[in-house]
Design a protein that fits this description.
Length: about 500
């Protein structure tokens, strides 16, 4: 054998050994993947998601177990469906699971580079979380600006009062959405961005609705990275326009405030925007706009769909509605508006909100998490770059934890310490660990106040003479879990 042949022979042997080694590693890694359903070429398990993926995946978990893997197009996805494993990924191995899987739509306006929702755990993300925790959502800040929100609840009640006089139905989800938007916009800017009864400020409401609708649509670009630049459904292009308009509107409000701040006395801080502008070392003007965009998108649909589902459950279960009304009447007096400081005295109302969140968590898979390296969980490998979904919807209905899991029974929380604050992994509508929802303290004020006021000020009947037991309970999956048919109910006084 001449020298050249020898070199070629050695080279070929090395290449073959390397290919063999990598195949072996790949198949070892595959064999340690969590179990899951068989996959079809190219599309993987996409067809198995159906139009209610939270239910389909809960069903598959019954066969494949509380940690399972699927292939959504080209994306390896690991689904967690038990409280024990949720605790493992959101608490014990929290940091490893804290990165986000970024949907293609969020490339619009490069929002993912600024957004507290989508940034990885990093100095910038930590600083944004700190700013929110101490300047927006702390107990003292929320106490200080609660009067801004009280007025918005009064306006909702005035609107329902008019419907009551005219004997017409309130679209509860729509009214709750406008109210949530105004509760937020008053907390942030002391202005209304939506008017429940008029269409004059409709544009902002439509913009936020459009963002949530687009973000909730299934997008092939998320499952097939080769399509990422093509934007096959035009979602990213439309998001670009919606984000642009919202950022312009916020930019205008911020500029206006900067101009009027010059006329203000120092330390005269009214609302969140004043506070953020005075933190000029920590957050600049463009980041304030981006943060507000996140807060409005993350905070409106979630809050309003929870209020709508709570009303749905109460109207579907008249004896529970009677108990909730009785508590409000006995504790605060009939036909009185509920204030945020009343909430601690209302255990049945608090239990009603928790029970609604157990049955109808508005973000059923939390916001997708991701791992950046291979991680071992429960004897399996969650591979690098895998998307991780925690099925909070399935966990809230686990029959090994919850008695009569599909029955609406607020009483179950009266004698129990289980709470939604991320310590009890059987009930995680806000997530848990580092990425837990920062808006939780505000949401847990807004939902009981709006719900309690609606039921303490009026009696309600379903439009069209529908009997409570006939109320349709179908869900519609999107960015948040909505009621498929909007709840329409007529307020009246007995
Ligand atoms: C009933 C109402 C709400 C529910 C059920 C809810 C639920 C959630 C959930 C499940 C997450 C993701 C947690 C995870 O991925 O592990 C989240 C994140 C977030 N929520 Fe909420 N949320 C609500 C209200 C709000 C409000 C009112 C705001 C602000 C005004 C807000 C702002 C955010 C933000 C900024 C994030 C991203 C946090 C991060 O990634 O670091 N949410 N929320």
């Amino acid at each position: 054998m001449d020298l050249l042949s020898l070199v070629l022979y050695l080279l070929l042997t090395i290449i073959l050994l390397q290919v063999f080694h990598s195949l072996l590693r790949h198949s070892k890694r595959r064999s340690k993947l969590p179990p899951g359903p068989a996959t079809l070429p190219v599309i993987g398990n996409l067809l198995e998601l159906g139009d209610k993926p939270h239910k389909s995946l809960a069903g598959l978990a019954k066969t494949h177990g509380p940690i399972m893997s699927l292939k959504l197009g080209q994306i390896t996805t690991v689904v967690i469906s038990s409280s024990a494993l949720a605790k493992e990924v959101l608490q014990r191995q929290d940091l490893t699971f804290s990165t986000r899987f970024i949907p293609n739509a969020l490339q619009a306006q490069e929002h993912y580079k600024y957004s507290v929702v989508w940034l990885p755990v990093s100095d910038r993300w930590r600083s944004l979380r700190k700013i929110m925790n101490s300047n927006i959502f702390s107990g003292s800040r929320l106490d200080a600006n609660q009067t801004l929100r009280r007025q918005k609840v009064e306006e909702l009640i005035a609107y329902a009062g008019k419907c009551c006089q005219n004997g017409v139905a309130v679209d509860i989800g729509r009214a709750a959405f406008s109210t949530s938007l105004n509760l937020l916009s008053n907390t942030m800017f002391s202005v209304d961005l939506a008017d429940i009864s008029h269409d004059s400020t409709r544009e902002f409401r439509d913009l936020v609705t459009n963002v949530t609708l687009e973000a909730g649509k299934p997008n092939f670009a998320d499952y097939f990275p080769v399509l990422a630049n093509i934007d096959p459904h035009g979602i990213r292009r439309r998001m670009m326009v919606h984000f642009g308009k919202i950022l312009d509107l916020f930019g205008g409000l911020i500029d206006e405030r900067l101009r009027s701040q010059n006329l203000q006395k120092p330390n005269e801080e009214k609302d969140v925007i004043d506070i953020l502008l005075n933190l000029n070392q920590e957050i600049d003007r463009p980041h304030i706009g981006r943060l507000l965009l996140d807060l409005f998108v993350a905070g409106t649909d979630t809050t309003s769909s929870t209020i709508e589902w709570a009303m749905v459950e109460l109207l579907h279960n008249p004896e529970k509605l009677k108990k909730a009304k009785a508590e409000l009447e006995q504790t605060l007096g009939k036909r009185k508006l509920i204030e945020e400081l009343d909430i601690p005295q209302l255990p049945y109302s608090r239990a009603t909100v928790k029970e609604t969140m157990r049955l109808h968590p508005s973000v059923p898979f939390l916001i997708p998490h991701k791992v950046e390296k291979d991680v071992e969980v429960h004897g399996y490998i969650v591979p690098k770059e895998a998307q991780v979904l925690v099925n909070a919807w399935a966990i809230g209905k686990d029959p090994s934890i919850w008695k009569n899991p599909t029955t609406f029974m607020p009483e179950r929380f009266l004698e129990s310490e289980v709470d939604v604050r991320g310590q009890d992994f059987e009930l995680i509508p806000f997530g848990a660990g580092r990425r837990i929802c920062p808006g939780l303290p505000l949401a847990m004020r807004m939902v009981p106040v709006v719900l309690g006021s609606l039921i303490n000020l009026f009696d309600w009947k379903l439009e069209g003479g529908i009997a409570p037991e006939e109320l349709d309970m179908e869900e519609k999956f999107g960015l948040t879990l909505q009621k498929a048919q909007p709840l329409r109910a007529i307020p009246f006084h007995m």
